[in-house]
Fold each of these.
Amino acid sequence: MKASGFPYVLPMLLLSVAFFATPLAVLVGFSFAGPGGATLEHYARFFGDAFNFRVLVNTARLGLETVIGTTLLGVPIALLYWHGGRNLRQVLIFLTLIPMLTSNVVRTFAWIVILGRQGPISEALVGLGLTGMPTSLLFTELGLIMAMCQIDLPLIILPLIAILSRTPVQLTEAAQVSGAGPWRIFVTVLLPLMLPGLLAGWILVFASTSSSFVTQAVIGGARNVYVPQLIYREVGTLFDWPLASAIAVVLLLSTGCLLVALTMMSRHRRLVGHA
Amino acid sequence: MRDRRENPIPVMLYKAFVYGFGGLCVIYLVAPIVIALTMSFTSGQTLKYPPQGFSLRWYAALLDPVRSATEHIAAWNSLKIAGLAVLGSLIFAVPATIGMTRMKRSTAGTIEPLLLAPLVLPSLVYGLAALIVANFIGFKPSLWLTVAGHVVVFGPLMYRAASVVAQGLNPSLAEASTTMGASWFMTLRRVTLPLLMPGILAGAFLVFIQSLDNVSVSLFLADARTTVLPLRMFALIEESLDVRVAAISGILIAVTLVGLLVARRVLAPPRQA
């Protein structure tokens, strides 16, 4: 009875191997392709160019800044969920899903309105007399981070909420009864409890931020270039596929390294890991 | 609860932090969606916010078949691709879900990461890889190639949604059906699929929404003639900050909201024991 499952799984498995694993292997192969066999030339070309290297550093920095930002915004929302009753919890899940399922281009567009010269931020600054003339945060890294933090926020909230919804509320009562204040409970009980969710969220946020082509291009503008634009430029206008592949592999590796590092961290703390 | 007559200030600070700052974070999360939606009803010519007046002119402009011909084609392409991607995901992911429930746990645990792998990879990298291979075999970018890419990247969403439901099912239900003499097809049609339906519907919704919104795969796999909606919006934003983008956004937000509300009706929220 139990042995009959495999034929059902086979089509999707073949799809995954043939159309997902194979292209990736080809991509990696391509990045080493040279006229006389394997070569590191494309990687050398990428890292040898000071501009490219700066773009890579900028992309990693953007990813890390967004991870920090989403954590600072996400943890309070998770706490609100933890202390909230049934109704508040339902509402919070709903309010997290709306932006998460709303098109990325729509959210990017919303930030163009917010950050623009005639947007609410500019109006507020002028109204408060902080700036004499309308200011635009478009095409600045600050504006991009503000947008990225909102766009990727659901990715960190959902894993946190998933953990907290499975945790009985009585967990903190023991600490409360023994006289621990709320801050102490937060630091010693709730934060360690949330850590696996944070780790999962950080990976998702970093991967999402470092490859969010549209938001980077539109809000970052022409002066703030990140790795995805670099890849697209090499493919779309310069037709340098081996170099584009090498850049893509570097992008993958940077996300992969973070994944491995965080996984090892969570194993090390003997936490139950779950993707 | 022992009353230890502690200093009440930390408690108040904590409450202020959770409810005050937490509330502000929620506003930060949701406000942009509200702003995009209200922007679409502006009567002005620009993206000035708050809008000067209320009008439906940008929706009218968007629905105008002459003025927005390009947008209509892009929307139609996107809907076709998303519909076909859902169909493709059904064909591959639903049998896989059923098959996995019939396997030994250890075997299933080995195979599952292979099925879910596409969810972890930045889809931009996948788009490039798929383009290289397609080119190698001699496929040119096209609508169909885009659909194939979407099925590979978003199929796992369908699998994950359906398998969440499948894991909660009692296998003896299907067994009972076969024992009572139902053919395997009958069992599938009358027992297994109806039970999996909430997961399948949730998966279909997710695949549809993600496919409709995808830029990074379509960027590489769609040909010049197959403009998709998000890329068209991207172009409108880059070129002219056309306010019609706000109207498209308004429609997309409405679709998402309606979909979510329907989903909540259909999928009763999982009760936490």
Amino acid sequence: MKKKFLGLSAATVLGLLVLTACGNNDEKDTSKATNDKDTFTYAISGDPTSLNPINVSDRWGLTATNMVYSPLARIEEDGTLKYELADSMETTDGGKSVTVHLKENVKWSDGEKFNADDVVFTYENKVLKENGNADSLWVGDQPIETEKVDDYTVKFNFPEVSAAAANNIATETYIMPEHLYEGQEEIDFSGSELADGNVVGTGPYSLKEYKRGEYMQFEANEHYYGGKPSVKNITLRIISNADTTKVALQKGEVDASMVLPSDIEDLEKNDLATYAYSENRVGYMGLNLNSDKLKDQKVRQAIFFALNKDDMNKAAYLSEEFYNTPNTILPPNNPFATTDVETYAQDVEKAKQLLSEAGVTDLKINLAYGSDNPEQTLQATLIQQQLQAVGINVELAGGDAAAIFTELRNPGSTKYDMFLGGYIMGNDPDLYSALYKSGAGANYFNYASEKADKLFEQGAVELDESKRKEIYAELQATINNDAVVYPIVDNKKILAASKNIQGIEDARLVPIYSFEDLSKISIK
Amino acid sequence: MIKYILKRLLQLIPLLLVISFIVFFLIHLAPYDAIDAIVTPNMSAETVELMKQRYGLDQPFLVQYVKWLTEIFKGNMGFSLLNQQSISAELATRIPNTMKLVIPAYITALILAMVLGLLAAANKNKWLDKIIDGLCSIGIATPTFWFAMILIYFLGYKLNLLPIIGMYTIGQDASFGDFFKHFFMPYLVLTVAFFPDLTRYIRTSALSQLNEDYVTVQQAFGATKKEIFMKHISRNVLIPVVTQIGQALPMLVTGAIITESIFGWPGVGPYMMTATKALDYPVIMAIMLLSATLVIVGNLLSDVLYRLVDPRIRQTGGGN
């Protein structure tokens, strides 16, 4: 009995050796997997929240949706439109409507022809508030109406003139196949998955298999209007642990993944290429204007003059390759972003002077930040150190990011004086009103400025591009001058990919869903 | 015996109700609203309100609790706030995956612990005992995630022997060989995580047996130490071990959270981790309730097994 036990345990403990002995077979299998030329494996960190094109808004959900479906058009970083299902778009009726002419040769992945009915169907379902993603299709309190002009022309009617609406129509609305739902009376699009699965789209790939928590497998859509994809299969592999992802990349179990700047050095040793691109994010330090200590504009400006964002960014993101430095509420790549504002370059003397003008001594304030976020932790300690130099004492209040922002959303909350956060709001500057207009849903700053509100309202209805730029330049200057938000960084996303993967530039790396068009990549 | 089990089962009901209430109450105490996980800054207040209504989050605390509990009685653990998937269905596919990992690891750890524990007790305070004790100390002090990363680095990457993620290779037909290659590293990590406590437990129980009368009697009859350990002590040590098995029941659900997340094993672990990060509170509550229930059921099981294994208790206990 005992001997048997001993033998068994020895086998377990020394299992490593046993495995080494039969290692040769394994090695063949592994190398076969890495040289698979038909499959591109991309590691993602979690399951998509939604795969329903009507209400998808999460990162991985959009990544998958963007492979299966296509929008009418995309907005590029410089603000220009890139047409997908649309052939052309024009503003009509003096800004009260947009007419879209559709491509005529597009087919769904099941071979059916795509036409205006699909577009009308999609927008009519998306505009319903109960489906959860309608806000960008409402102007004021009224919905945008969609009207079929002929088989390949659709007209969107706005309740009032709106400069942002054309953008909103195009952004992240993926057109659904109406023919699949013909004859169905009540179609519920409020769920996270479509009743009959996500099979038919106009995008480069179709979803073949989804194993929750494990992977999603896609296969090429031969009817894709953008040309037949050169890689036959795409696998999105779900790996929640970042360290595991890194090793999986190094050994070739996955072909590509997002990585951190600190990983790059290791990965380059493994013949992996890295690509950095901006997501047009603004990482910032916000001031809570409810706090009595920060009511005085001079105190707020003094805080900003005491800070040095270059030091923070070099420390957190290692190299200028991996970040841009924003000056205003808009990310630097935004076509409306201006540098013609007070940028608060570090000036310790001025900070001290402003503080004494305000008659403030012994200022003690706290700073909330996400303690599980290494970059914010670093920023917070540097802010504490830099403000110490002008005699401001900062108490660090690390916590859970969701809990901090819930607290900040409470009306009249003064628990936190300052906080670190970040946002990706998209291209049209009107979208930023959700953060800075008085009483807006995400106005964590409790910022209320009549001047800024008025400029937001003017900008939303101004159709002349250059006048619009002026309005938003003034708006940015106003907010900077009021010193409510200190933009720190537009940190880039970094994709690491095996050098066998070609055409990543052509596939274009874009905010949120990483690859604009995966049909453009190939495997060497 | 049956009467005893029935009595214990009846006692369970109020206990489970209390636990369900505590679980629900604690989640509600958390400093955020479950709705925060599903709204984005772009949403209007009206949409947020609609969302709250859809998920029943606008109802008062007790109404929500009663609604939740009635659904659970019907076998419906609710739906994830994040992706509206049925939690029961999700757990039904994930719990077996966790069990496939935890059960073999636990059995191996138990066998290993029996051998090492008895060896240590038989050689009390000698060098073998000290080595085993040292091994256990190292095992206890080693964080699972760290050991897992070491294995991944050497076996998975440097030597390139084993795949590091998932349960099967994607696109291949499921075969035992493929499963085993994916299974081996997480299994080893869990075995190492489970065995030290068990070993110490068995060593202590074996030592306490040494002072029992029957050992003295055997010694008086001139039995060798080897005989005493193999024939008598090892059998009597089984009794406390059986109670350990009952108490290990909750591990079938939550025993491998960290290990599973590291190896991308599609069990309960990554599900629980994602839900926690996303404040997906119906999922967190379901898993908490399930594992609390298993603790109680496990204790009941221990007691019952104890009675079955130990005739002395069966006799006295049966009379009650």
